[in-house]
Design brief:
Number of helices: 6
Order of helices and strands: EEEHEHHHHH
Low-confidence stretches: 145-153
Shape: globular
Number of strands: 4
Structural class: alpha+beta
Helix content: 25-40%
């Protein structure tokens, strides 16, 4: 299967060989992984796509069906920007929704507040809502985790 969106690369461990994979695999390769032929394996984000890394940061492994569901959700939403990944992350992590069953409406209903500052006290100084449809500057993976850790998203 070919995914519509670039979801980055993934590190993996092959249980048949009892060794880490010698290279990172693309999301397409993960979805098409033949567990019988190539060996049972687990995969996790390599970190080159901050949105995917943040979405799966609390997980031990990512499955091909989850990547297919994410790709389909991004297709239905019509965009794959930073704000979209933050909304999906909030829906899945904080609202407890299943990535395989979450709907675009549930993601759109997430009221997202985005805080950017230079120290931990900045989020407490005031809230600035991110208007729907607005664009967010590209964030690094650490920015997304920091924003979540401060309780804003």
């Amino acid at each position: 299967m070919t995914l519509k969106h670039d979801l980055g690369t993934f590190e993996g461990f092959n249980f048949r060989e009892q060794a880490a994979l010698d290279r990172n695999v693309t999301a397409d390769e993960l979805v098409d992984w033949d567990h019988d032929g190539a060996g049972e394996a687990e995969f996790w984000p390599a970190g080159d796509h901050p949105g995917v890394a943040a979405l799966f940061d609390r997980r031990n492994a990512v499955t091909g069906s989850e990547l297919e569901a994410l790709d389909d959700l991004l297709r239905q939403l019509g965009h794959d920007g930073t704000e979209t990944f933050l909304r999906i992350r909030f829906a899945v992590h904080d609202r407890g929704l299943d990535l395989r069953t979450v709907t675009p409406e549930e993601v759109d209903d997430v009221l997202l507040y985005l805080y950017r500052g230079t120290n931990f006290g900045d989020p407490r100084r005031g809230r600035v809502p991110l208007p729907r449809g607005s664009t967010v500057p590209a964030l690094r993976s650490g920015d997304i985790r920091t924003a979540s850790a401060t309780g804003c998203c």
